[in-house]
Design a protein that fits this description.
The chain has about 325 residues and is an alpha+beta fold. The chain has a domain of about 90 residues. It is about 20% helix and about 25% strand.
């Protein structure tokens, strides 16, 4: 199954040219684009000073340096690792709030078993190429347009989907945005021309974690790869469910940067989850803030148009949060 995904990614990279090969197959080597962040470079911690502590709810391993600072969190069953690096500030024109964070999110080659590969950790702490959070910001409102060597679209201020009868249509996946064919277990998904440059909410997550960061993808959920729809990411996605509730959770204290936040934003569609975003961190107003692709602003945003992108308060997304998954 993995070989089929890699063949798809190689085919997509070939269609996009040499730069896309770098982005789709080896995201750690991708060229940086303007991503709404800024921060100073810091040095990685010395491995000789690390200590390792087990924690629960969820099961995870915390790595601390000689000063007692947590420099990495590895969650059992998840590939997402939250690292401590240079402080960055995420900002967007659609909100006055900013997210200033030292968290960097990168993916392990396979889900964590509780043991820490110290060579991988040392390399990840020193890596300053765009991580999951910086990559997500390359598609929000006002993001610069970047192209591959053959001038194919790489990143931009993405749309949510084509406008039909006055409404933005969902259905735009990562390969629709890039206008490349994708193969999944022998099935082929051809891009829709009208969806070029567009990403719906789950398509945005698959672009950031899948096409750009290397997480394997699939159409139907299998518990190992990243499926197509938000509801599938909830019930059959890979990684670890950190929060899972039928109503609004009483606490979001377990959240880490890069977590998928899953919402029941439309109560009349018959599903418990119908929207997904990526958690960024605590904003300048003290609220937990996420980024997601929405119809109301026609694409990915961390802003407050058509509903605040926060998990606190009484807004639409705060009250409709139902689950958190750590990929």
């Amino acid at each position: 199954m993995l070989s089929a995904i890699m063949r798809s990614r190689r085919a997509a990279a070939a269609a996009l040219g040499p730069l896309a090969l770098c982005v789709l197959l080896a995201p750690s080597q991708a060229l940086a684009a303007k991503d709404g962040t800024k921060g100073a470079v810091s040095r990685p911690t010395a491995a000789s000073s690390w200590t390792f502590t087990r924690a629960t709810a969820p099961a995870r391993t915390l790595v601390e340096d000689g000063t007692g600072t947590t420099v990495a969190t590895f969650t059992d069953g998840s590939r997402s690792v939250v690292l401590t690096g240079p402080v960055r500030t995420f900002a967007e024109s659609t909100t006055s709030a900013t997210v200033r964070t030292a968290s960097w999110v990168r993916l392990l080659p396979s889900p964590s078993t509780g043991q820490v590969d110290q060579s991988w950790l040392a390399s990840a702490l020193a890596d300053r190429s765009p991580d999951v959070l910086a990559t997500a910001m390359q598609y929000v409102t006002g993001a610069s347009t970047t192209h591959a060597a053959d001038r194919s679209l790489l990143s931009s201020d993405a749309s949510y989907g084509p406008l039909v009868d006055g409404s933005r249509q969902e259905g735009s996946d990562w390969n629709d945005y890039l206008q490349v064919r994708a193969s999944y277990d022998g099935a082929t998904d051809s891009p829709e021309p009208l969806q070029a440059g567009s990403l719906d909410c789950s398509g945005f997550v698959r672009m950031v974690f899948g096409a750009r960061s290397g997480y394997p993808m699939v159409l139907a959920p299998d518990g190992v790869r990243l499926p197509r729809r938000a509801v599938q990411m909830h019930t059959g996605g890979p990684g670890t469910l950190v929060v899972d509730a039928a109503t609004r959770p009483t606490s979001v204290s377990a959240l880490l940067a890069g977590d998928l936040v899953l919402f029941d934003a439309s109560t009349d569609d018959g599903t418990l989850v119908d929207h997904v975003g990526i958690y960024l961190g605590t904003d300048s107003a003290g609220s937990p803030r996420f980024v997601s692709s929405r119809k109301t602003v026609d694409g990915p945003t961390m802003g407050d148009v058509g509903g605040r992108s926060t998990l606190s308060g009484t807004g639409l997304y705060a009250t409709s949060l139902r689950a958190v998954r750590r990929l």
